[in-house]
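2024-03-11 09:14:02 DEBUG pipeline.ingest accepted 1 chain
2024-03-11 09:14:02 DEBUG pipeline.ingest length=172
2024-03-11 09:14:03 DEBUG pipeline.predict start
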Amino acid sequence: MVAVSQALAAIQWFTLRVGQASALFVPLLMVTVVLNVTLRYIFSIGSIQLEELQWHLNAVAVMGCMAWAYQKDVHVRVDVFRNRMSPRVRAGIEAVGVLVLLLPFLWFVTVSAWSIFGYSWHLKEGSPMPSGLPARYLIKFVMAAGLSLLFLQSLAVLGRSLLVLVSTEPSA
């Protein structure tokens, strides 16, 4: 049990660090958006590079923070009855949801994302716009890595839920 707890703690630590680092891209994204809007609407200067940079910065922030949001339990929940449930019941529902719904979905999407990245890398894909950013495969890597981290975090959530379910403490 100690080794499992240590492995889960390592996943949690890694998810936290990646999420915190990815969150640092949000202010940069905001500056880029303000600059792009200012150039476009005040000075009538359009920039494909700035538009694509916005998409890339947004992708880094979102894909890097998804697993962190799940870890911190600040993601959207549909279950309005959750707060009235005991910790064991919540852990059981979480475990079933992760095992039956989330992990199979993430497996399919993550494997597909890595395949898309691999193809993009092989082509050395860049922007379809002549003045766009090069190395589009980098952002596809970020997408695949972010989904992989969410998959890993889902395993950690499943592990934590199972630890609550097998715990002998009444208020686990």
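2024-03-11 09:14:41 DEBUG pipeline.report The two ends are 15 Å apart (CA to CA).
2024-03-11 09:14:41 DEBUG pipeline.predict end
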